[in-house]
Structure formats: structure tokens, C-alpha cells
Amino acid sequence: MKEAELIAIRRQLHQIPELALQEKETHAFLLKTIQSFPQTFLTIRTLPKLPTAILVKVTGSDPQRTIGYRADMDALPVTEATGLPFASHHQGIAHACGHDMHMTVALGVLSYFAVHQPKDHLIFFFQPAEESKNGGKLAYDMGAFTGEWQIDEFYGLHDRPDLPAGTINTRLGTLFAGTTEINVDLIGKSGHAALPQNANDMIVATASFISQIQTVVARNVGPTDSAVITFGLMRAGTIRNVIAGSAHLEGTLRGFTQKQINFLQQRIRDIGQGIAASFNCEVKVDLNQGGYYPVENNPQLTKDFIDFMQADPAVTFVPTDPVMTGEDFGYLLNKIPGTMFWLGVNDPDSQLHAADFSPDEAALAPGVTAIIHFLTHRMAEAAEDLD
Ligand SMILES: CC(=O)N[C@@H](CCC[C@H](N)C(=O)O)C(=O)O
């Protein structure tokens, strides 16, 4: 696929961002695009219980194994502020994490193998619900990768704004953190602002809860370890002169090991219980890790990936440290060996999830080339492994 076609596809996807499990227009667009490729080697499959997902199998000419490639489809509840002429048509929703780029790269790679039959089978997984609702886990747990659709090794990318467009980056070991979604409800009693003694103010209880949570990473996590707890949503109260009888918080915690994540979860539960006792209120703490396991790259496959990318003259490879972003590809890599990697998209003044995030489309063509080269190499490598 030519660069201009990749850019046109990316711009169309960019205009139709949809939230997790609601990716209907995106699904229709992807399906139409995939159906426009030569169909000789392709089998397209949808999942009735995960209706926005699409799986495409490219039948290999002399298959020894099946290699999977995953691209996520969902967007974020962010009001786009890029000023782009092809900005989101969906009010309050934007591809602020670059999944439009991910899908475009996957389509570019798929279009190549639709014409150049691969040696091994390839399965492309267009996955709904990465930002929340763990679409990868849903697909795996419903048996999407069984029988004819079993995958032996799995690859997927995420775009990265602080690195030059088109560079490839990954590392041995953990690449992304494991996360847990945190929902907290504090329930006290509302009343008149002038009569606090007759009410139980959940804004005050929330302030204390948040302050105590800030001590967890500062005081309970070793200085050379890493963890983060962020509350991004807080809702309480209706008007200045009514004491808020309830409060609702939503946040996320992150750590590089499951042990660390379990520990952070327990500290949040403990602090919730402490707040309930000290403010004589009810505190409901709901923690949901879902499929957001730490993204652990498989040692052998990732070493091969890095060696290949470093040697390929068409690729600029940059080593990288782990980061605290999460990814439900962590769940899939927990079940199937593989490698997650970054694609640099050169937007260093912005960041993922920001309203003005605007990845450089110059990353698309080199991203597609690097992956086509690697998958072709992997198929030759796979055959040698089996000898
Ligand atoms: C790459 C990226 O930004 N991923 C998301 C993953 C969502 C994690 C989950 N919903 C949570 O908030 O715990 C991220 O926020 O890192």
C-alpha cells in the first residue's frame, strides 16, 4: 500500500473514533477495507459475542506455525484539540492514543500479505476495547484463539510520541506496567452547609482519602522501585451550600510486577477501611485488573525481534526503558508468547491521551515496512527452528 493510501485510511479512521465495545463504524470501515484486498488467501471472521472485533487469517503457503498481529480499535472520551482538518466527527471522543495509527499499520501489513502469500499462517486481530473493558481478555477467554485460529506467537505495537517518526523500540522483559482500575464510593449524609454537625461531609472524607493515598507510593514503595496511583475523576456535591453526602472517585494504579500490583491494591483497600472508620461513613472500593497484566515480552522472541530490527537497514531501532502505561496485550502475552513494541510518532510536545496529541503520519510507511520485513524473517526463522 502506498504512503498516500495509508495516510488516507488513517485520516478516515481518525474522524470516526468510538469508545470501547462501541466501535461499530470503525468495524464497518475496517471490514470494507479488508474486503477490498484480494481475497485468495484471506479468511475473515467476526465474533458474535464481541461484535466489533475482526479476525483475518492469511493462509500460509507452507505453514509450520501461526503468527498473530494485533491492532487495537477504540478511542478515548477526550475532546480533540488538534485543529486538524480531519479531526474527530464524534463530539467528545478522539483517537488521543493513536489507535487509528495502529489499525492503519495493521491494514498496510495485511494488504501486503494478501498479495504476497506468507509462508506461515498469519492472523490479524483487530481488537476492540483496549483503553477499558479489556477486549483482548474478552476475545481470549471466549476461545477466539483456539482450533484453526490458535496463535503460536503474537506481536503488537503502540505509538510513542517522544521518539522520532518510524523508529521501532522495545526491550527484553517488562515493557508496560500492569494496571488496575479503581472505583471508590464514599457514602455519608448530606445536609445544610451551616449545620455540619447534622451531616457527614464526603468532600472532607474524600480529601483525607486522597491525601492518604498519596503516601502509598511515597512511603510504602521502595525508592528504587516504581509505582503510580492516579485519580483522574472525582465527583461530589451539587451546590455550595449543601454538604455532599456522597462522593465518587475513579483512578488507576500501575506497577511493573504482579506482586507490586497486589500490594498497591491491598493498601487502597486498607486506606478505604481506615477512612470508613475515622469518618464514620461507608467506603466501597472496587478494584478491577481485568486483562491489564504487566506486558512481559517473551525473552527468545524479543531477542530475535531486537536483533532483526537492529540489523535491518530499513529500520531505525532505539532501545527503551519500561513505562507505566498499561495495555491489555499484557493478558494475551501472558497466554501466548510474543513481543510488544513501540512505533515512534514524533509528537514530543504532546503525549498519549492529550487532547492535542497528533502523531506524525510519516511513521506509517516505515512502521509497515519494518513489520513486513520482520514477519517475513520470522517465517524463515520459524522453519529453521523446526529443523
Ligand atoms: C497505552 C495506554 O494508554 N493504555 C491505557 C490502558 C488502560 C488501562 C486501564 N483502563 C486502567 O486505567 O487501569 C492506559 O491508561 O495506560
How is this structure best described in words?
One of its GO terms (molecular function) is N-acetyldiaminopimelate deacetylase activity. Pathway: Amino-acid biosynthesis; L-lysine biosynthesis via DAP pathway; LL-2,6-diaminopimelate from (S)-tetrahydrodipicolinate (acetylase route): step 3/3. The protein has 387 residues and is α+β, with helices and mostly antiparallel strands. The chain has two domains: 1-172 and 295-378, 3-Layer(aba) Sandwich (Aminopeptidase); 177-286, Alpha-Beta Plaits. The protein is built from nine helices and 15 strands. The protein has helices at 3-14, 24-35, 99-115, 135-141, 202-220, 258-279, 299-311, 329-335, 364-386, and strands at residues 42-47, 50-58, 66-72, 121-127, 153-160, 168-169, 173-176, 178-187, 191-192, 227-236, 242-243, 246-255, 282-288, 295-297, 338-344. Helix 3 (99-115) links the parallel strand 3 and strand 4 (121-127). Helix 1 (3-14) packs across helix 3, helix 3 (99-115) crosses helix 9 (364-386) and helix 5 (202-220) packs antiparallel against helix 6 (258-279). The model has no long low-confidence stretch (mean pLDDT 97). It binds the ligand CC(=O)N[C@@H](CCC[C@H](N)C(=O)O)C(=O)O. Residues 97, 131-132, 158, 179-181, 252, 292, 325-327, 352-353 line the site of ligand L5K734KM.
Shape: elongated
What Rg do the Cα atoms give?
23 Å
> β content, as a range?
15-25%
Predict the CATH topology of the largest domain.
Answer: Aminopeptidase
- Total number of β-strand segments? 15
**Arithmetic mean pLDDT:** 97
Unreliable sequence segments? none
CATH superfamily of the largest domain: Zn peptidases
Structural class: alpha+beta
